[in-house]
Design a protein that fits this description.
The structure is a homotrimer of 209-residue chains. Chain A is 71% helix and 0% strand. The first copy, chain A, has one domain. The first copy, chain A, has 209 residues and is an all-alpha fold. In chain A, helix 1 crosses helix 4 and helix 8 packs antiparallel against helix 9. Chains in contact: A-B, A-C, B-C. At the A-C interface, helix 7 of A face helix 1, helix 2, helix 3, helix 4 and helix 5 of C.
């Protein structure tokens, strides 16, 4: 029940980000819906393809694409959508990042031969690569890869490891998942509040070519 | 027979678009062939991966990649290819959009748990996402997502729904497919003729951030 | 044994390219690791998805993602990494291109219905499309597609065909693989030494639209 609510909020907030990004770039409804779809479902789709899970989760849960469609319709009718929504987004987005990280890690751990490190990567990919693909399709360097964003993949990575280590040490599944999710949400919101980012690794280009 | 001819024309016209785009951007033959390949086969490849169909259609129909290869060779030798071809393309391209939309929708409907809405999305992805991936790989915002193109994904969506609703109401398969294809072709060619586009959804950026 | 060493050097050199590219673009560690991962494993991942091979090779060989992680950490701590590494890279990179081309082709030939031409494409995709995806995610036109790079996909294509023809004429597998790899390495290094490139196929844009 609570999980369903978090998942619902997470899909909605990813969709809102997608609509705002696509509208800011001057796209039409095809672009708005496509970008919202890619940001909402891209990470989970990559996970399912990489783990050979079938059917894809948005085929198995067909109400989600329809929700994104109507979200895109409604948000396309609003004149100044950003003003209202950008304040509200960080909390559901952080919850969604936490949920998808834990779920992606858990699915990966069900696969034979899965190393802990790869399982953590699956958590991060599930939680964050929808946004990466949305940026790529909008012809932008992914904001996930740039030092301008407060810890995001890092929060997902820490929460995924929390979940992995707790389950490997036989902590009850639901407690491990809750703590993993909490680590993600706490890290992400703390990073936003105190503007914690990874350093820019650019090197002096005048030194080479 | 007629289907094979339409498919052939559709692959050729997608390939021609790819060659022209890559040459316009100053690529070499590797780029020209790759972009033509991606535009011709990208949508169907995504469909097959998402539906877990194996082998991929261009592995099962291995003459198509060879056709695109020789098309790319021939069109790379022509000095001013655009002048000759751009007039001819819209009709085979619209036919191909119609065919691939209907085929993609039909394959999707064979999958258990497939909602009508998702099946229509599979029609659109099959018909249009080769072009989206071609644009992405050429470092352009996909023209499919921008209001500068006359109805394209919209035509595919309408035709896919036509096919879905007719087959669900037990219309004979071949009639449903023909009508679905006709809706796509008519919508697309009408949109080109009367320059019908979806509106630009950009919002005033001076109002936010 | 020798194969394992070549594979190791190839993964390392692809990872180094990825780190240098991401740092040059001013990314943070998330970007550096992601780009290195995509360049190192992207081509093989596409091959595995297209051939429906499961688990993905970097899930079956889980030390590789960890190697790339520590490579990214170490290379992120060096102040001027390019000066030291760019001299060393072409030889391991050419070896890796050769190895991955031959391995990709060999895996493709195991698949039923695989045409020789498609098998050669699988060699090229395995050897080169990690770099293409790395460029795409960094918002650049893939250097593989541009005439500014000495023969790269072409070297892979020639070596893949060498391997295909030799195995089809019943040459012993290990000899066919060695000769295929040698053709790739020789072609690539000769192309670098004598600056051999494919021609720019741009046509006069003033002639059309």
């Amino acid at each position: 029940m609570l999980l369903t609510l978090i998942e619902f909020l997470a899909v909605i907030s990813a969709g809102v980000y997608g609509v705002l990004l696509a509208r800011r770039l001057g796209m039409d409804f095809v672009g708005v819906f496509s970008v919202a779809f890619i940001i909402s479902f891209g990470g989970g789709t990559l996970r399912d393809l990489f783990l050979d899970r079938t059917p894809l989760f948005w085929i198995a849960a067909p109400h989600y694409p329809i929700i994104i469609f109507f979200l895109a319709v409604v948000l396309s009718l609003i004149r100044y959508p950003a003003r209202f929504f950008e304040r509200l987004l960080p909390i559901p987005d952080a919850l969604g990042l936490g949920l998808f990280s834990v779920v992606g890690t858990a699915y990966a751990l069900e696969t034979p031969d899965m190393s802990w490190f790869n399982a953590a990567l699956f958590g991060v990919v599930t939680g964050t690569f929808g946004g990466v693909m949305g940026d790529v399709v909008c012809n932008r360097v992914p904001s996930l890869f740039r030092p301008s964003t407060p810890l995001y993949a890092t929060a997902s990575f820490l929460g995924s490891w929390t979940y992995i280590l707790l389950t490997e040490f036989h902590v009850i599944e639901s407690i491990a998942a809750t703590l993993g999710l909490a680590v993600v949400v706490f890290t992400r919101l703390a990073a936003i509040k105190w503007d914690i980012r990874l350093p820019d690794l650019r090197y002096g280009t005048e030194e080479i070519d």
